[in-house]
């Protein structure tokens, strides 16, 4: 009888200890929270016709730190997916392809511009028009993030570089 009670008490102790143990071992991701002092200028999204399934974003990213950085992921709450694309000319034809990221050495500049590297914004969650502002987060592997607000502009909507339909 006493033995049974002890077992029950032990079982209860474990049950109550479990939540405390979970609290004791949090899983912080400091690198995902840290803002990296990367400079981002001239950030803009090209306004697309209503119903467009993809938009493109452009900006100048400069790494002023003394450490190399790897841009490995870009997200935006306004889009289901953001890809990093490079443009290249093959056999006289302009092509674009997705890349896993870009590395920026100390002091390096990374240019996203029409006809060159660009951020491909896919699965828009709502229609965007010129003047709208879209939050975006650049993630630098192991270093942190750079959060920014990107304005939608109508410039170039007729396009110097035809893009995804
Ligand atoms: Cu593209």
What report would you give on this structure?
- With 165 residues, the protein is of the alpha+beta class.
- The chain has a single domain, classed as Immunoglobulin-like.
- 16% of the residues lie in helices and 45% in strands.
- The chain is built from two helices and ten strands.
- It has helices at 2-24, 30-33; strands at 39-46, 54-62, 69-75, 79-90, 93-99, 102-104, 109-112, 118-124, 133-140, 144-153.
- Strands 1, 2, 3, 4, 5, 6, 7, 8, 9 and 10 form a ten-stranded mixed sheet that branches.
- A hairpin with a 3-residue loop joins β9 and β10.
- The radius of gyration is 23 Å and the shape is globular.
- The chain binds copper (II) ion.
Strand content: over 45%
Q: Tell me which CATH architecture applies here.
A: Sandwich
List the domain count as a whole number.
1
Q: Topology as H/E string? A: HHEEEEEEEEEE
- Which structural category do the helix and sheet elements fall into? alpha+beta
User: Whole-Å distance between the termini?
Assistant: 76 Å
Name of the CATH superfamily: PCu(A)C copper chaperone
- The gyration radius over C-alpha positions equals 23 Å
What's the total helix number? 2
What's the total count of β strands? 10
Pick out the low-confidence regions. 11-22, 158-162
Describe the biggest sheet?
10 strands, mixed
Give the overall shape, derived from the CA principal axes: globular
Which CATH class applies here? Mainly Beta
- What do the pLDDT scores average to? 83
Ions, cofactors and other ligands present here are: copper (II) ion
């Amino acid at each position: 009888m006493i033995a049974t009670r002890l077992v029950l008490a032990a079982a209860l102790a474990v049950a109550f200890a479990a939540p405390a143990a979970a609290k004791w071992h949090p899983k912080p991701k400091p690198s995902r929270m840290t803002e990296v002092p990367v400079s981002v200028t001239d950030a803009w999204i090209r306004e697309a016709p209503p119903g467009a399934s993809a938009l493109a974003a452009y900006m100048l990213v400069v790494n002023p730190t003394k450490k190399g950085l790897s841009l490995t992921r870009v997200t935006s709450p306004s889009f289901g997916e953001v890809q990093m694309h490079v443009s290249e000319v093959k056999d006289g034809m302009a092509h674009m392809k997705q890349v896993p990221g870009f590395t920026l050495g100390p002091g390096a500049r990374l240019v996203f511009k029409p006809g060159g590297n660009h951020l491909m914004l896919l699965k828009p969650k709502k229609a965007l028009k010129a003047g709208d502002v879209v939050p975006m987060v650049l993630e630098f592997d192991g270093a942190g993030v750079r959060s920014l607000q990107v304005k939608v502009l109508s410039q170039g909507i007729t396009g110097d570089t035809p893009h995804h339909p």
